[in-house]
Specification:
InterPro entries: Helicase_C-like, P-loop_NTPase. The structure is a single chain. By secondary structure, this protein is an alpha/beta fold. The protein has one domain: P-loop containing nucleotide triphosphate hydrolases (Rossmann fold, 3-Layer(aba) Sandwich). Helix content is about 40%, strand content about 20%. It has six helices and seven strands. The protein has a seven-stranded parallel β-sheet with strand order 3-4-2-5-6-1-7, sandwiched between helices. β3, α4 and β4 form a beta-alpha-beta unit. The longest helix has 22 residues. It starts with a helix and ends in a 7-residue tail after the last strand.
């Protein structure tokens, strides 16, 4: 291996070590659920889990919009961030979320890397991320400032399962099946 390749490998190893510390603040779970049942499972989780705020990641803005319409209610206000809204609207949405005008934020993958909210205690991968880096970016949003975080990934296909297995291997984190009851 060349000297340059060794430096890149060393930096990657150091970054992964920092990442492991970030991910260890979270309890990681997966939910095996058929694609067609994901929205009802999401409703069930939102109704049964105790949380301050939740961020839900989807694969695209159409899915984010549909979920926002399904979830948003006076009892559980939600908002949606996707590429179909202007940068100014995104900034205003983040501001509102930070001020607790909404307890749920649904984010389309295309704009997900910019989301950085302090008091989110649950992040849900409604759609499994494409790779381990995307998993890190999504779940690095939860469990900050001493808040214990919960990371939940919906697994609906063999490809989803492979991503979860890759995350466990790369970051040495255990992702167990979501138990029937979670101790808050």
């Amino acid at each position: 291996m060349s000297n340059r390749a060794n430096k890149i490998a060393d930096n990657t190893d150091k970054e992964d070590d920092v990442t492991k510390l970030i991910l260890y603040r979270l309890r990681h779970y997966y939910v095996a659920v058929p694609e067609i049942e994901k929205s009802s499972k999401l409703n069930e989780l939102l109704g049964s889990l105790e949380f301050n705020q939740v961020v839900i990641f989807t694969k695209d803005f159409e899915q984010a919009t549909v979920l926002n319409k399904m979830i948003n209610s006076p009892e559980l206000p939600s908002m949606c961030i996707h590429p179909g809204i202007s940068q100014q609207e995104r900034i205003e949405s983040y501001r509102q979320f930070k001020s607790y005008s909404a307890r749920v934020m649904i984010v389309a993958d295309e704009v997900g890397r910019g989301v950085n909210i302090e008091f989110v205690d649950i992040v849900i991968n409604y759609d499994t991320p494409s790779d381990t880096d995307a998993y890190l970016y999504r779940f690095g949003r939860a469990g900050k400032f001493g808040i214990e975080g919960l990371a939940i990934t919906f697994v609906s296909s063999a490809e989803d399962k492979k991503v979860v297995e890759s995350v466990q291997e790369r970051f040495e984190v255990s992702i167990a099946e979501l138990p029937a009851e979670i101790n808050p």
